[in-house]
Amino acid sequence: PGAMSQAVAKEMPQEEGEGGSRRSSWGLLVTAGVGGTLVALYAVATPFVAPALRKVCLPFVPATAAQIQNVLKMLENRSGSLVDIGSGDGRIVIAAAKKGFRAVGYELNPWLVWYSRYRAWRDGVHQNTKFYISDLWKVSFSHYANVIVFGVPQMMPQLEKKLEDELECNARIIACRFPFPCWIPDHTTGEGIDTVWAYDLKRSRGCETKSLEITPETE
């Protein structure tokens, strides 16, 4: 019996050591798997949340369902071409296309543009939508009657001037989340981050048609 006890005592540390080694190996595998998954998620997500504009750091922030509905409300009784400046994943452009608009989105982030095109195809509105990879400061919006902006406060003053210089009097500009600094909105809807402001350039410019006063000529 004494010999057997000594033999068991000699074998036990070895078995425990083998078990600990197996547990350590499993731990390394789990750690490696979790680490690899996080790296993959970071690699996929980073292009989507990276800044989409060069002059202003504007990360991708998806429009909420309430914001989209508020935008569509501001587009009621409107027609003509439509553009979304900084279109992100294309959800506003697609929603407008479903309402009958021929809608265009400009976005600097190529991953978001490709994803927008896929979503438009998936939702069956790819024929009424277009998405371009472009810097908004290098694009003229002069031929659009409806302009949607999802910007940040730092870019709004300069964008306000750009749009006022380029757009026709019949244009309507719809700002999401942040208003323009100088223009007075003609319509407002929503609350908090879902607030939407609509601006009609014909009023801000004084473009209303005025009747001419005809005075009789005097001799």
From TrEMBL:
The chain crosses the membrane at residues 26-45. GO terms for cellular component: mitochondrial membrane. It comes from the Eukaryota. Signal peptide: none annotated. Keywords: Membrane, Methyltransferase, Mitochondrion, S-adenosyl-L-methionine, Transferase, Transmembrane, Transmembrane helix. GO terms for molecular function: protein-lysine N-methyltransferase activity. One of its GO terms (biological process) is positive regulation of sensory perception of pain. Residues 1-23 are annotated as: Disordered. InterPro entries: FAM173A/B, SAM-dependent_MTases_sf. It is a single-pass membrane protein. It is found in: Mitochondrion membrane. Belongs to the ANT/ATPSC lysine N-methyltransferase family. This is ATP synthase subunit C lysine N-methyltransferase. It comes from Oriolus oriolus.
